[in-house]
Structure formats: C-alpha cells, structure tokens
Design brief:
heterodimer; A: DNA Polymerase III, Chain A, domain 2; 16-stranded antiparallel sheet; B: alpha+beta; DNA Polymerase III, Chain A, domain 2; 2 domains; nine-stranded antiparallel sheet; five-stranded antiparallel sheet; about 30% strand; Rad9/Ddc1 (chain A); Ddc1 (chain A)
Chain lengths: ~575, ~400
C-alpha cells in the first residue's frame, strides 16, 4: 500500500470538501503532494496570478500511511528531497481533475459521510486498470459504501516558494535583535514559528549572493507583515461582491489599516461611461490588529534624478503602505476558513512587499496551514538596487496596544543604515502585465527596472525649489501621499473621490521617456507596446501640466502651448483637477 | 359516419390527486410525449408504457383508491386505449396546486373512440379536460415476461436505500453503462452492488448487506435451482434505461429484483401506503397529507418494471469489474473466498452469454501473470467442472 489517508468527523470532511471546491474553482486540475509528514494540495489559476496551497499535517487524518518505496507504477511522481538538515524525504506528487473530485466529495442530501479514505495503490499488488488511480472510498451513514477510482497523473513537485522567500526575508529584517529594544513576546513567538517553518522547508530558492552587508537594509529588502483576526477580514469580505468590485486595496500606516474594495469606471467610445467606478472602504485602527511590522524609510536628503542634492529634508515621512490585489480569489480563500468551528479565534498572517510583488496570506489552524499568494498591481513607483547610500531606512514595528506616542518615541531610536535613492518615476516603465513568466514563480515584480538615464542637459524641471519636490517626485499622486498630505483620512468622501480619480490615473499612466530638451508628441518609445502610445500622450500631457503650474507658481516663462485638440483628453473622472489650458 | 362504440362505460372519482400525480410521475420517463397504454378493468386502472421495446412499466391503481368506481363492459372484461400521459399529468398537476380546497377528480371513458375525460371539481370551479385517445394495437409482451424457472438471482432490498444509491449514481453523471453485481458469501455477508463506468473511472456503490436492508439475496447456479456462493452474477445495463426506474423506486418501500437467464430484469415495486412520498413537492405533501388519508384497504401503487440486460461484449471490462469488486478500500485485492457449491443436480442447461464471457475472461486471465495470484484460485476450482461441460470455445 503506497498511500492511504482517512478523514473522519463532519468538520474535517467539510474542510476537505471546501478545500477541493475552492481549488477546483481556480483550476480544473488540482495537484497533490504527499510526504511522510503532510499532504499538500495546491493549484494556481490559469493565468498564474494566484496560488492557493493547503497543507494538511499527518495529524489531520485518522490514518495516514505513506510508503514511497513501494511504488512501482507512476514512479514519475516520486522524488527524494534533502532538507537543510541533511535528512532525505520521499515525496509523491500527482495531479487529478478537480471537478471530478469535487463531484465525488459533494455532500449528498440526507446521507452523511462517516469515513472518507483516499488511497493510491501503485504497488506490485495493483492490477492494470487500477494503476495510476486515486481510490476514494466512502462509508456512509446509511451503510452504503462507495468507491471511486479517479485517474491521476504523476508529476514532479516543483513548488512556487514565495512563502519561504518571504519568511526568510521577514526573519532577516525583523528577527535580528535590535539594540536596546525589547521584542514583544507575541512578535517573538511569530518569529519562532516562522523560523521553524523555514528550517523544515524542503525547497529553498538559491541564495542570491548579495554584495551588500547583511546588517544594512535597503528598500529592496522591504517586507511588511500584518497579523489580524480573520473576523475583521471576513466581515469586510462578506459585504463585497466580486462581480461589482473587482479589486481589493489594503492600506496600512502606523495608525490605521484600511481595506477598500473597488472597481474602475469603464468608458466606451467618446468617454461614455459604461460602468461607474465603485468603491467600499473599511477602516480599522491598528490597535485592533494583533501585530504589524511595517518597513518604512526616512529620506534625509532628497535627490533628484541626476543625483544632485537639492535640499535637505530631515523630516521623516509617515509612510502608508498600500497594495492592490484581486478580490475574488481572496474571497474564496476566506470561505475555506469559515467552515471551521472556532474560526473566530484564528488569525490571518499577511506578508507583502512593494506594490507589484506578490502578497501572501497564511492561516494556521491545528494540523492545517492554508496559504494564498496573489499577484498585486504595480504602479509607476520604481525601485533600483545597488545605489550609493544617501538616506536611512528604518523598520517600524507596531504592536497591539501601543499608542502612537509610544510608537513615535520608539522611532527616535533608529539605525543609520544604508538607504537608497528615490528615483523619479519618470524614468521607469509602467507595469507590463503581459509578461510570459509567471510573476509568482520567479518573484520578479511586474514592473521591470531600468537604469537611470543620465542626461547631458539638465531640464528646467530639475532646478525646481525643494518645496515642490515631494509632489514633483511623484507626479502621480498616489494614495499614500494624498493621505499624508491632505490629512484626508477623516474625510471619507474626499478619500473616495480621490481614490476614484487616482486609481484611474495610476493605472492609466505610464512613465514616458523624456527626450533631451523637447517634448514630442506621438512618439512611441521603442520599448513600449503599441497600445500604450495613447497613454503616453496622456501622461506626457499631465507632466507638462504640472510643469506649467509650477512655472506659474515660480513665475517662470510659460512653456510652449500645446495643441489643444487632444485625441482623448482626460475622462470625466478628473473632476478634482482644475481645468487648465490644455483641457 | 359514426363509429358504433362498443358499450363500455368507465367512471371513477377520487380526491387523492397527489397520489395520482405520484403514480403518473413514475410513468413519465417511459412516455414523455409518447402514448401510454391505459388498461381498465374491474379491478382497477393500469398504465403500461414501453421505451424502445427494451424497458417496460406497468403501474396499477387499485379500485380501492377511488371513492366511486364503476366499470361496465358488455363485450369484454377490459378496455384498452392510448393517451398522452404528460398531458394527463399536466392537468392533474394544475388541479393539484389548489391547496385551499379539496378537489375531486373524476376519470371517465365511454367506449372505443371516446375521449378520456377528467373532471376536476371543488367548491367553486368545475373543470373538464378532454384527452383524445386512440386504439391500441395488441401489445407485444414477448420478451418482457420473466421466466420464473430460470432465475439467476433474486434480491429483496429496501427501497429508500436503493433510491439513495441510484440518485448518487445519477449525480456523478456521465455514465453510459452500469453493472449489477450480486454475490452470495458465507456468513451472510452478501454483496449487492452497482458499478458504473464513467469519465471519472470505475465507481462502485455497495449496498449494505444487513438483513434489515438487504432482506433477501439468492444467487443461483447454472441449474437455477441451487444456491451458488462466491461466484457473482454480473449483469450489464444501459444507464439511461436503468435510470428510468429511479422514479418508481423513489416511492417504494421494498423492491424485488429478479434477473432471469434471458436477460430480463424484473423489478417489483411494493409501496406500502404509509411510506409513500405523495408528491415531489414535500411541503405540499405534508400539508395535505394530514387532511387526506388514503383508504385503509388500498394496497398502494403496484409497479412492475422490466428491463432488458445488455450483452457483455468486452471481456476486459468484465474482468475489470470483477477485480474492482474484489479490491478493498486500499485497492488491494481481497483474498478470494473459496466458495462452496451445493451440487444437487447435474449441469444441464446451456450457460448464458454472460457466463461464457466470464469464462473467456478467466481463461484469458490465467495467461496474465499479474492476475494469476488473484484469479488462480478461481481458475483451479472452476476450470475443471466447466471445461468438462463441453463449453464451446470461441478462441
């Protein structure tokens, strides 16, 4: 007997059934991997934008037998993996059709399953037609016994290990002892659990050789962590309809966590609105969170793209992290948990990095670990590695029960660490969602990075006075700056409106390439795709508008007037922007 | 020209509309838009339907169901005519929706050529529905009658369990064929199972062998008189046809299945009055059930179904089925039980097609080294008696 696992008990049956249902709704094939300690079932959706993985430990099953050495048929699925401690583990992986499995495990009315067994017999005693079949055996309450033989395809286990990568980074960044600081015991426990996970993991990514020293953190090391009760998320998600609001934005700063479900307006020809923008926001104080660790930066010197120090800005900014991902998959994931009794007590762990990098959710239950990894939407903000230090980076840890005053006091104790240059988003390319590589697998952010373009001639705009720097460096008013600058946290309606506008802007904008001294219209940069040429015009236009207003402010000579008859102009959602010469 | 109608008069009235609906629902899978033969005689009303000449239903409503029942016929003792059953069902359903008031339904028919009339009356409304009828040819019942001298297996099982199994099978979906498997084992652990082959693979549903559920199971030997232990009877049926029996089994309390040597599966559905689900709409049934009790001496709906077995042409799938039945939950083969045979008389009758193909399968199987350990025991014990029987060898 090569593999057998038995589930009894209605709660566990329900969890299993829900797992199978959710996984089969993502992809028509479900992957299984069996090891001597656990059963992992996982799948990604067709576009590889979401990965859902549920790990059942051996104790979840009433009976668990695994003998990989007895497998004769379907030996392509057998793998021997050595873990970090040098112990060999045998694995067997296979793929089955999710829809069929779902049909079989569906709860029939009036008859409950007493015992549910899955088994594979690819051993010498197996007959021809039962080879490579997943045998599912159910004993019902009515004494009927059902058995199904489902075709399986043995595969090799090649996992997407974002979870290990993130956990390692988390330990690196937050786990190192901070001088003179006491680590909250809760955080300590989380770190311990994470460390155990990383240690026992079988698959690790190849360690990248970093030139930087380990004790200096850069923006590339950014990793944020939130731990909150699943009730908070569930309450919000239950009110959301994935058909109306496609995406979910999660924003967090030191005082608040905000969840926004939204969808953009859809315009047809001539800007006729086909669908209105819609958003729904829930704001929670961070005091209600179990734990949160935010990676923030302090810019001591602001730089411009040409690395000329323009001004000293010692003021630290309160950073708001925000990240956007799809709502539908997240809602399905939360639904798996709801079937479990005592689900109110469980917490959801969230790890995320910059926008564009995948976000990871994890829920731990006794004997079951549920994980969801999703790609996120990237905007124009770019990060470049290996830049000479000029600003400091600090890690900010927020704990439950800490008041903002105490938090600020803690912030005084910062480390002088190597920072990095905030590159003007103008220099980078907008998110290109048509990457052939799975963003989950290769861990690259959706927005690629480019080198800084060094110009011989300095533009007028780079000589601006520092006060407008903050705004100038990010002409795309992302939500974080809006929140900070306008203190519009309390004005929920304004926020909503801003969001509607800015979301549009952020997603429609690409960063245009600056030519040396003149701005050209209608020139499509080589690297861009054809369908972004229109967007380029729009972003160029916006850029020019900004410059124009700045010039008015500083009373400089107006730039050349542009051709007023723009092909598209701005959509009707741009109500908050003053209409200028170009509209 | 007026056709001189033979003088026969039939009139029956009842208030149990749900009961009529339930009964007609069992017949609908066989007819749909086609015509169902209605047979009226002094004892009651029968509906007989066939489908492609391979499956037949005979549903009998005894006269005790009706408040008044009159049947007069001068020339013969029965009347036969064909009517569209779905239309009759529709009219009864419409009347059945009236839950506020008791509706009395009167069925009548006056001789050949006259329409089948249903009159629905309640306190305020009287509705008369006329269904055209036409004469029926003589029903060719050959092939459907069970040969009681050549029964291969007989099984009496509780109806609700069998219905659960059939419903499960239906939900899996995608099957073309299903097998009935019956095997007697020592110690009362008899096996009665339904196996289906679909795109999921082979699925089997083993019905419980407890005496309270599987009340009787008898598997007969080739001579049809002695019980045979350890050797299963496997019969193949088309799944769509088999599924037509499901509605009838739904209302049953007990089902008697018998398979004869000619491949006719006879299913007798016994539905006791108290156990009947009076309508598919359970909420309605509960509300009106409390008001209308069926008459005390009414035996319930009597249904007899006959289904033709399919010939097993693929020996490999037959062997697969056997092996599948012999594997336990882990997919490991259970050690085959050494069967005893109470040999009473000599083997005289010709084996059926199924038996021949099974033997072929087994003889082929012995050549296969893998199956040797599973089937070896069978082969050793079986080959000798059967080969000496002068079985025709087809290879």
């Amino acid at each position: 007997m090569s593999f057998k696992a038995t589930i009894t008990g209605p709660e566990r049956q329900a969890l299993w059934a829900r797992t199978v249902n959710v996984l089969s709704s993502l992809n028509k094939n479900i992957m299984f991997t069996v090891s001597s300690t656990e059963l992992i079932t996982w799948t990604t959706d067709n576009a590889e934008t979401a990965l859902c993985k549920i790990r059942f430990s051996r104790q979840f099953f009433d009976e668990f037998i695994f003998n990989p050495h007895e497998i004769i048929f379907g030996e392509e699925g057998v793998q021997i993996v050595t873990d970090t401690e040098g112990v060999d583990h045998g694995l067997y992986s296979f793929q089955v059709s999710g829809s069929y499995l779902g049909t079989i495990t569906k709860k029939t009315e009036g008859d409950t399953i007493q015992k549910f067994t899955i088994a594979i017999n690819n051993t010498t005693t197996c007959s021809d037609f039962l080879a490579n079949r997943l045998l599912i055996y159910m004993e019902m309450e009515s004494l009927i016994c059902k058995q199904h033989s489902l075709q399986l395809v043995p595969v090799k286990y090649d996992p997407i290990i974002i979870d290990i990568k993130y956990k390692k980074k988390f330990l690196e960044v937050y786990g190192s002892s901070q001088d003179g600081e006491m680590i909250d015991p809760r955080l300590d426990q989380i770190l311990r659990v994470t460390e155990a996970d990383v240690r026992t993991a079988l698959f690790h990514e190849e360690t990248e050789k970093l030139n930087q020293k380990k004790d200096h953190l850069t923006l590339a090391d950014e990793i944020n962590y939130i731990c909150c009760s699943q009730v908070l998320l569930k309450n919000f998600i239950d009110h959301c309809n994935p058909n109306l609001t496609r995406e979910l934005k999660l924003e967090i700063n030191t005082s608040r966590l905000s969840l926004t479900a939204f969808s953009h307006a859809v315009h047809g020809k001539n800007n006729k609105p086909l669908k209105n923008a819609l958003s729904f926001t829930d704001t929670i104080s961070t005091l209600d969170l179990e734990q949160s660790c935010l990676f923030t930066t302090i810019d001591e010197d602001t730089m411009d793209d040409d690395q000329n120090v323009i001004g000293h800005n010692a003021q630290k900014r309160e950073h708001t992290k925000n990240i956007i991902f799809s709502l539908a998959d997240f809602k399905k994931f939360m639904n798996i948990i709801s079937s479990w009794k005592n689900s109110n007590e469980s917490n959801v762990d969230i790890w995320f990095r910059h926008r564009g990098e995948p976000i990871m959710f994890e829920v731990r239950k006794p004997d079951v670990i549920l994980e969801l990894v999703q790609v996120t939407v990237a905007d124009g903000v770019a990060v470049v590695e290996n830049i000479p230090p000029s600003s400091s980076v600090k890690c900010q840890t927020m704990m439950k029960g800490t008041s903002p005053e105490k938090a600020r006091a803690r912030e005084q104790v910062t480390k002088e660490e190597m920072g990095l240059l905030r590159i003007s988003p103008v220099k980078t390319i907008a998110p290109n969602k048509n990457k052939s590589k799975s963003p989950l697998k290769y861990g690259k952010p959706i927005s690629p990075r480019r080198k800084i373009k060094r110009e011989l001639f300095v533009n007028d705009s780079s000589q601006d006075i520092p006060s407008s720097d903050a705004k100038k460096q990010k002409p795309w008013t992302s939500l974080s700056t809006d929140w900070k600058d306008d203190a519009s946290l309390d004005k929920s309606t304004d926020v909503v409106r801003h969001e509607g506008d800015d979301i549009n802007n952020n997603f429609n904008s690409t960063i245009a390439e600056k030519s040396a001294t003149t701005v050209e219209w209608g020139v499509t940069p080589q690297d861009h795709q054809n369908n972004e040429s229109k967007i380029d015009k729009r972003s160029l236009l916006r850029k020019e508008k900004f410059k124009y207003f700045q010039d008015l402010k500083t009373e400089r000579d107006a730039l050349k007037k542009k051709d007023p008859s723009q092909p598209e102009g701005f959509g009707p959602t741009q109500v908050s922007k003053p209409k200028g010469l170009f509209d | 020209m007026k056709v001189t109608s033979k003088s026969s008069k039939f009139s029956a009235s009842t208030v149990h509309l749900e009961h009529i609906t339930t009964a007609l629902n069992c017949v609908t899978p066989f007819g749909g838009k086609a015509f169902i033969l209605t047979y009226i005689d002094a004892d009651g009303l029968s509906f007989i339907g066939t489908y492609n000449r391979v499956v037949r239903i005979q549903l009998f409503l005894s006269k005790e169901l009706f408040i008044s029942y009159t049947y007069e016929n001068d020339s013969s003792d029965h009347t036969k005519f064909c009517v569209r059953i779905n239309q009759v069902l529709d009219s009864v359903n419409v009347a059945n929706r009236n839950i506020d008031d008791i509706v009395e339904c009167t069925l009548s028919h006056n001789g050949e050529g006259s329409p089948f009339v249903l009159i629905f009356e309640d306190s305020y409304i009287s509705e008369r529905v006329t269904h055209e009828t036409f004469l029926a040819n003589e029903m060719d019942n050959t092939g459907f009658d069970l040969d009681r001298d050549r029964i291969r297996f007989e099984c009496m099982i509780k109806g609700d369990i069998l219905h659960t199994a059939l419903k499960d099978l239906k939900e899996i979906g995608g099957q073309d064929e299903c097998y009935l498997y019956a095997e007697l084992r020592e110690g009362g652990q008899n096996i009665f199972a339904i196996i289906s082959k679909s795109k999921l693979g082979l699925s089997k549903i083993v019905l419980p062998s407890a005496k309270t559920i599987l009340e009787k199971l008898e598997v007969f030997d080739e001579d049809f008189t002695t019980l045979c232990y350890g050797k299963p009877v496997i019969a193949l049926f088309d799944f769509n046809l088999f599924d037509k029996l499901r509605m009838s089994i739904k209302i049953s309390s007990k089902v008697l299945l018998r398979l004869d040597a000619h491949g006719v599966l006879n299913v007798n559905v016994l539905s006791l009055t108290e156990d009947i689900l009076l309508s598919s709409n359970k909420s309605k049934a509960t509300s009106s059930n409390s008001r209308l009790q069926l008459p005390k001496d009414y035996p319930g709906i009597v249904i007899e179904l006959s289904l033709m077995e399919k010939e097993i042409t693929d020996e490999n799938s037959m062997r697969d089925v056997e092996i599948f039945m012999e594997t336990n939950e882990l997919g490991e083969p259970i050690k085959p039980v050494i069967y005893k045979k109470k040999i009473v008389g000599s083997i005289s009758s010709a084996p059926t097609n199924a038996a021949i193909s099974r033997e072929l399968g087994k003889l082929n199987g012995t050549a296969n080294a893998q199956d040797a350990e599973i089937e070896g025991e069978h082969a050793i014990q079986e080959e000798a008696p059967f080969m000496s029987n002068g079985l025709p060898r087809f290879f």
